[in-house]
Each structure stands twice: as structure tokens, then as C-alpha cells.
């Protein structure tokens, strides 16, 4: 059990107080503040700036000039903060009982209802880009039954706060350590499960697939889940537009089948959703979380770890 750290409660209280103050501001003022703080943070927090620039340069290589890369990098933190600021307003959004007017959804909800008519549930996959929390929230506000798979925050007051915000818009949280049983139950009830599989998680089973021209260790769990339940995978993204608006963009459903060699099929469909993710990130590069070290796990590093495990055993 982690040791209790009294300062965490003080930071938690400060965060709740800050959120309360932000809630008093008009939304456009709060988002303008988020962009401003993010811009300053880019210059003041050198560790984050270094990570963002390093990953952008690694991804794009010679495709983009230094000026283009720096222009993208300066907006990343501001976009992440705008996502957080809108997330803190979930209880306000929920009061209207409907999707906020600044979100364009088109025919996406009708499309998802048609898929759910199949009775297998639906696995919606998104990336840490645009506003992934609000993406889940608008489905909850529209009346869909759904849950997201997320990480448990190991400071309980923070955890209850985050889970409560999602719950205010009818989105349940399934923790990763209880995911398999609960996810299957959600899909059996013909509900929606939301996944965020775009990051490097070397504690999960994965394969290396191409991402911006480099091998990226990628979880195979989404594809295997779809194979075992029959639920299709649907890439979906809530991207930010000018004027503090959002647009819901959905890709083509992916229906994994384990015909022939199962491992080859898992790789094939994992590559398919990763291509979709890369296409969206290339369209809205400043809206993805470039501070995350997506290429942390390399084939060489993974092979070395496996050799060490064999030696120790």
C-alpha cells in the first residue's frame, strides 16, 4: 500500500477550488485561459517541451520543417488543457439533458444505433486527441448505455472526483484491473465500451505495427476482444474546431475475424485501426498528446527483457 502523503490532500483541495472558479467563467473565457496557460507552459516547462519536440521530430522526420514542428508543439499543451477544462464542466453540461450545442455529431448516433441493432455491443476506440472524455460524455448524454476503460487514480479523492464527473453524464468507469469480466458483461448487455489504446503500454500483450513510419508497440486487446465477443471496433474522434466547437468523426467499423492464422489476423486488424488513428492525428497534429513517449518500447528492448526473464526463471 502506498504511503499517505498529506500534501496530496492540499493539492486536491486546490484543484477543486480552481475547478469551482473556472466553472464561474463563461466557457469561451475558460478555454482562452487554457490556451494561454498552455502556451506559457510550453516555454516554462522545459521537460514537456523537450518531449513534445523530440516525438514530433521523430514522427515527421523531414516531412515538416522546424518551424512547422514548433508551431504544432506550441499548441499541444493548450489543447490538452482545453480538454481538461471542458471535462471539469461535465456536471454543467449534464443539466440540459442533451448534447451541448457546440458539438457537431451529424449522423453518427444513428449509425451507432444501427450497429447496436446487431445485438453484439459496440467497441468505440479513440486516441488521446481532441476531447476523448467529452466523446464518451456525448454518448451518455444521448442516452446510450456505456462505459470507458480507464486507469484507477491511486489517490482516492481524485479518483472519486474523476469517476463522478463521468458518471454525471451517464458514463461508467471500468478499471483496467477488472476490465475483462466487466467489459464482456457490458457488451453482452448490448452496451458500448470505450477504449483508449493509442499509448505504449508494455505491461500488456502487443505487437509492433507501423506508426508514422516507425514500429510502435501496440496492444492487441481490442482486436482479441472483438474476436471473442463479435462486437465491431469503431474508431471515433471528437476533434476541436475553430470557435470552441467540436466535431464527431467516425471511421469505418472494423470487424475482426480469426480466419486462418489467428496471430496474423490479430496483427492485420491491429494495423488497420492504427492506420485510422495515424490518419486522424496527421489531420489534427496539435490535438494529440505528443508528450507521451509512444515509441518507448522497441523490438530490441522487448527482446532484451524477455531474455532477462528467461535467465532469472
Kindly summarize this structure in a few lines.
This protein has twelve helices and nine strands. It has 313 residues and is of the alpha/beta class.
| Percent of sequence in beta strands | 15-25%
Radius of gyration over alpha carbons?
20 Å
Instruction: Give a count of the beta strands, DSSP E runs of length 2 or more.
Output: 9
Order of helices and strands: HHHHHEHEHEHEHEEEHEEHH
Regions with pLDDT < 50 over 5+ consecutive residues?
none
In helices, the fraction of residues equals: 40-55%
Approximate shape: globular
Characterize the largest beta sheet: strand count, sense, and whether it forms a barrel.
Answer: 7 strands, mixed
Mean pLDDT figure? 93
* Span between termini: 27 Å
Secondary structure class reads alpha/beta
The structural domain count equals 1
Side-by-side strand order of the widest sheet: 1-9-8-2-5-3-4
Determine the number of helices (DSSP H or I, runs of at least 4 residues).
12
Descriptive tags:
single chain, 313 residues, alpha/beta, seven-stranded mixed sheet, 12 helices, 9 strands, 53% helix, globular
Amino acid at each position: 500500500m502506498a504511503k499517505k502523503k498529506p500534501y496530496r490532500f492540499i493539492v486536491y483541495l486546490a484543484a477543486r477550488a480552481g475547478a469551482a472558479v473556472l466553472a464561474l467563467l463563461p466557457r469561451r473565457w475558460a478555454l482562452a485561459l487554457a490556451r494561454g496557460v498552455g502556451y506559457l507552459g510550453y516555454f516554462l516547462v522545459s521537460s514537456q517541451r523537450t518531449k513534445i519536440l523530440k516525438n514530433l521530430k521523430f514522427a515527421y522526420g523531414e516531412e515538416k520543417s522546424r518551424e512547422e514542428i514548433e508551431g504544432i508543439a506550441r499548441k499541444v499543451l493548450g489543447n490538452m488543457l482545453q480538454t481538461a477544462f471542458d471535462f471539469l464542466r461535465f456536471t454543467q453540461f449534464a443539466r440540459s439533458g442533451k448534447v451541448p450545442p457546440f458539438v457537431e455529431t451529424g449522423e453518427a448516433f444513428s449509425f451507432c444505433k444501427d450497429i447496436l441493432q446487431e445485438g453484439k455491443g459496440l467497441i468505440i476506440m479513440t486516441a488521446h486527441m481532441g476531447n476523448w472524455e467529452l466523446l464518451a460524455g456525448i454518448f451518455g448524454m444521448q442516452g446510450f448505455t456505456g462505459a470507458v476503460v480507464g486507469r484507477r487514480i491511486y489517490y482516492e479523492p481524485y479518483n472519486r472526483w474523476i469517476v463522478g464527473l463521468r458518471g454525471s453524464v451517464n458514463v461508467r468507469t471500468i478499471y483496467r484491473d477488472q476490465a475483462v469480466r466487466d467489459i464482456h458483461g457490458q457488451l453482452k448487455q448490448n452496451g458500448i465500451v470505450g477504449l483508449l489504446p493509442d499509448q505504449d503500454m508494455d505491461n500488456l500483450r502487443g505487437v509492433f505495427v507501423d506508426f508514422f513510419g516507425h514500429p510502435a508497440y501496440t496492444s492487441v486487446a481490442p482486436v482479441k476482444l472483438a474476436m471473442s465477443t463479435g462486437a465491431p471496433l469503431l474508431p471515433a474522434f471528437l476533434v476541436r474546431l475553430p470557435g470552441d466547437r467540436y466535431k464527431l468523426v467516425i471511421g469505418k467499423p472494423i470487424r475482426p475475424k480469426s480466419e486462418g492464422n489467428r496471430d496474423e489476423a490479430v496483427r492485420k486488424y491491429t494495423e488497420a485501426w492504427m492506420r485510422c488513428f495515424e490518419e486522424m492525428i496527421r489531420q489534427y497534429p496539435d490535438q494529440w498528446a505528443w508528450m507521451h513517449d509512444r515509441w518507448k518500447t522497441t523490438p530490441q528492448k522487448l527482446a532484451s527483457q524477455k531474455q532477462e526473464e528467461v535467465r532469472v526463471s
